[in-house]
Design goal:
The complex is a heterodimer.
Chain A: E1 7-8, H1 15-22, E2 27-30, E3 37-38, E4 54-57, E5 61-70, H2 76-79, E6 85-92, E7 97-102, E8 115-122, E9 128-134
Antiparallel strand pairs in A: 2-3, 2-4, 5-6, 5-8, 6-7, 8-9
Chain B: E1 8-15, H1 26-41, E2 50-55, H2 62-69, E3 76-81, H3 89-99, E4 106-113, E5 127-128, H4 143-158, H5 162-177, H6 190-194, E6 198-201, E7 203-204, E8 213-222, H7 223-227, E9 234-242, H8 265-276, E10 285-287, H9 293-302, H10 311-315, H11 333-336, H12 343-354, E11 367-372, E12 378-384
Parallel strand pairs in B: 2-3, 2-4, 10-11
Antiparallel strand pairs in B: 1-8, 1-9, 4-8, 6-7, 9-12, 11-12
Classes of the chains: A mainly beta, B alpha/beta.
């Protein structure tokens, strides 16, 4: 059966992120002049004029900043078999916030600041989603 | 900072029925509310020369409404693409347009088939473009799911709040029971709240606002002109719009927002009170953008009624009930009256300040706060009679 959930549409800014995920590497942008990481990816370093960020592979380790547990599926036909599932904002050790599902733990056991590490969920030949599991 | 204190007024209000299925075009809803606002003010439609609205690609453009109404010369017909955060921005923009000479009498409206047409509560876009590529593929799609992420951060910081959320939901429902316009008029008990279906933790069904078809409109004009019209003017005393850093690529995008434990209102606070020359203690009644129960706490804390993390304690002991020190959402709010994207709060503010709120009238209401938006951008107004 073909994959029936929303799929990312990579663009010129995000392509390296999705290519990295496909290869099992978490790629994040960093601004060389101030060392700051940024996500979502952009063409320019935030607040640094026209300076362009570089792509670096990060540790994939971080902590849960906030999360939700979806109980009521929307749209129903797509997510009815998935609930309950968790989506989180993760603060990576590099200080940048990223998104992903939390897997490998009962959704009721997720806690604030819980250490997590990146894992990968291949959903199509082109797209692999970075997700997070307890570290 | 908005600097037109008391120079402009709301002279007319109009609204349609609030329903789950209007069976009508959004444009006709908008026109009905606007025509009624003109009649309410006693202003001839031919004298309207400005019309402003906001939409999410779910409404009728201002020029279409001007056309249906037969406005002969709509000099300032403008649509903002925005969420509920713009509900007070468009009224403030009307004052700016009049001050600049772009128009004299400006209608502001929000119209939507929010239940029977385009529902903000859910989408089905299988191609996740832009910032959505980092959210939707994880099943993070709807506005309740977006706001739940904010709410959880708040709970992480300040602890469980369910009893406070229950108090907010029950209080607004009590108000709705007295409001013939309200869509939900069945009394709600603590158990009703607690037993309502979990939708997306930490939200239950009764934490989440309604979905509605309907329209609301107000007519803004200069204070001098408003004095000669049908009703006692409701003056725009203060206002603010905006937010802080990292407002994001769209309303859903909160990835870079500094801390979801407070929302944009915290950034507007100083300008809002300064523009009106008053403080929180001077407010008699407030209409707070309650897309979720939780949003009320963020507004009260953000605007300085309570300290951060103490909004829950603030709303207890009857303080926000009709006979309390700060009655909130006297028509029932977005949670129990209707969800006209926050614009129904402006209608209720005017009715309270005119003394026309019937069974739900707050005694001696002279100053009313309205807020709009609960995420990275917001707007607010202070109205007086």
């Amino acid at each position: 059966m073909s994959y029936n959930k929303p799929l990312p549409v990579p663009d010129p800014e995000s392509a390296p992120y999705w290519e990295g995920a496909r290869e099992g590497r978490l790629m994040i942008q960093r601004c060389a002049s101030n060392g700051k990481y940024q996500f979502p990816p952009a063409t320019f370093c935030q607040g640094q004029g026209l300076e362009k960020p570089e792509w670096v592979e990060v540790s994939g380790k971080g902590k849960v900043w906030s999360w939700i547990v979806v109980r009521h599926p929307v749209p129903k036909d797509i997510y009815a078999s998935e609930v309950p599932y968790a989506v989180a904002l993760i603060t990576l050790d590099e200080g940048v916030r990223v998104t992903g599902n939390i897997i490998g733990i009962d959704v009721d056991d997720i806690t604030a600041d819980m250490p997590v590490k990146v894992a990968y969920r291949k959903v199509t030949d082109e797209i692999t989603l970075p997700v997070y599991e307890p570290a | 900072m908005w600097a037109l204190k008391d120079k402009y007024a709301i002279a007319g209000i109009g609204y349609t029925d609030f329903t789950r299925n209007s069976g009508r075009t959004v444009r006709s809803l908008a026109s009905e509310a606007c025509i009624k606002a003109c009649a309410d003010a006693g202003v001839d439609i031919k004298d309207i020369d400005g019309i402003i609205s906001f939409n999410f690609n779910d409404s009728a453009p201002a020029m279409g409404v001007a056309t249906e109404m037969g406005i002969p010369q709509a000099n300032y017909a403008v649509d903002f693409q925005s969420g509920g955060n713009a509900a007070n921005l468009i009224t403030l923009t009307a004052t700016a347009a009049i001050e600049a000479g772009l128009a004299k009498n400006v209608l502001c409206y929000r119209a939507m088939n929010g239940r029977s047409g385009f529902r903000l509560g859910g989408g089905r876009d299988m191609n996740a473009y832009g910032v959505t590529q980092y959210t939707a593929p994880y099943g993070w799609i709807t506005y309740p799911q977006a706001m739940a992420m904010w709410c959880r951060r708040y709970l992480n910081k300040y602890g469980p709040q369910a009893d406070y959320f229950a108090e907010i939901a029950m209080t607004f429902r009590e108000n709705a029971v007295l409001n013939e316009r309200a869509m939900q008029r069945t009394p709600m008990s603590y158990d009703d709240y607690m037993n309502s279906r979990p939708i997306v933790d930490p939200f239950r069904m009764l934490d989440i606002c309604l979905e509605s078809d309907g329209a609301c409109a107000v007519l803004i004009t200069g204070a001098d002109r408003a004095k000669d019209l049908k009703h006692k003017p409701v003056y725009i005393m203060g206002g603010a719009y905006g937010g802080g850093p990292n407002q994001g690529d769209d309303l859903f995008d909160t990835i870079r927002y500094p801390d979801q434990a407070h929302n944009a209102l915290a950034y507007l606070k100083d300008d809002l009170w300064k523009s009106a020359g008053i403080g929180p203690g001077d407010v008699d009644v407030a209409q707070i953008y309650d897309c979720f129960t939780y949003s009320v706490l963020m507004a009260l804390e953000g605007l300085g009624f309570a300290k951060e993390g103490e909004g829950g304690g603030f709303i207890m002991d009857g303080r926000i009930k009709r006979d309390g020190a700060l009655p909130l959402n006297t028509a029932g709010g977005l949670l129990s009256e209707a969800y006209i994207h926050g614009f129904n709060h402006v209608i209720e503010a005017v009715e309270q300040l005119r003394g026309h709120a019937g069974a739900r009238q707050i005694k001696d209401a002279e100053i009313c706060l309205t807020t709009a938006g609960a995420m990275t951008t917001a707007s607010a107004m202070i109205l007086r009679n």
